[in-house]
Amino acid sequence: MPPVIAFLSRMSADYQRPYLDALRAALPGEIVAPLAELSASQREQVSVAIVANPDPADLTALTGLRWIQSLWAGVESLIAALPSDSPPITRLIDPEMSRTMAEAVLAWTYYLQRDMPRYARQQTQRVWLQHAYRKPSQTTVGLLGLGELGQAAAVRLRDAGFVVHGWSRSPKTLDGVETYARDDGLCAMLSASDIVVSLIPLTAQTRGMLDAERLGRIKPGASLINFSRGPVIVASDLLDALDRGHLTHAVLDVIEEEKLCDRANTLGARLKQRLEAIRDETPEIVDIRGPGFMNAVEFNDVKKGLPSAEFANAVRLKALDKGLILLTCGVYSNVIRFLAPITIQDGVMTEALDILESSIKDARGA
Questions:
Q1: E strands in the chain
Q2: Is pLDDT at 159 greater than 90 in this prediction?
Q3: Which of 164, 174, 243, 332 could bridge across to 307 with cysteines, CB 3.0–4.6 Å?
Q4: What is the CATH architecture assignment of 95-252?
Q5: Distance in angstroms (rounded) separating the CA atoms of residues 259 and 328
Q6: What CATH topology corresponds to 4-90?
Q7: CATH superfamily of 260-365
């Protein structure tokens, strides 16, 4: 019987199953099994591990390991977490991953090129003001990183009519793309770009690469898209560049310290606290529920003791008049569910809570 190939991941069993099915079909002569199903003796014999965002401690416990195959393109965090004498890690180069990343780069580039952030702000202010259209051929996109993902993105952008520049540490050539290399090339590309897209891996050399100095090299009024790991950008320097108006917008796939679960709990607690504060004077409120920021409030007719879609809808309409969009739902349409993003700014959250409270009070007086 051949040694077992261990599959390590922090995904749930349901998410692991398609990976295991595909691996077993591709390797019919091998035994591929999740680490949790292996006995102690089997673990001692494991020399090859296939991983997808594994716990590094599980890998270090496999003392006979000689080869780690990652199914994910990004292996920087895994390399940083493992001892220096760990087995070599090979990463996956997946054409489908390159295609989807190139699509995402193109989509967010269109978002910025078409000035969608400005129109979104105007929409919240109920302002209709058309702005001059900037063609893709008038928009220079600078790509940081010309690896597999960067080259795929460059081709999509080029074919969409954008002026594409690309930077890499070592010189590279790509048809229809003006390429740069090394530090002096980096400064030249940044200063020429209307939109900068970061696709570089996180290494000791790239950590904090986009700091105040390099952000300051970007053309004034430009925008930034970061599909790299969060620590590539110095967050405080980026915020300063945005606050000063040097950069007009930033699209961030990840940030260095997200703490999104903590943020969700904090926002949910604020919402529940505000609703609980008016519950005694609002007998229509019969339930406030939901984990984290996935909250809802349920309303009944006080006299009939039955679900009141009318009251929920009255709250919704009062809030809409004041610029807050609420969603009514539930079997009886007597529930308002809150779907704000957990990245909502504190000031905006306070404004929304004030509108919600006043709308409930107005609905009672209607």
A1: 4-9, 31-34, 48-52, 67-70, 89-90, 140-144, 163-168, 178-181, 195-198, 222-226, 247-252, 285-289, 296-299, 327-329, 335-337
A2: yes
A3: 332
A4: 3-Layer(aba) Sandwich (3.40)
A5: 29
A6: Rossmann fold (3.40.50)
A7: Aspartate Aminotransferase, domain 1 (3.90.1150.10)
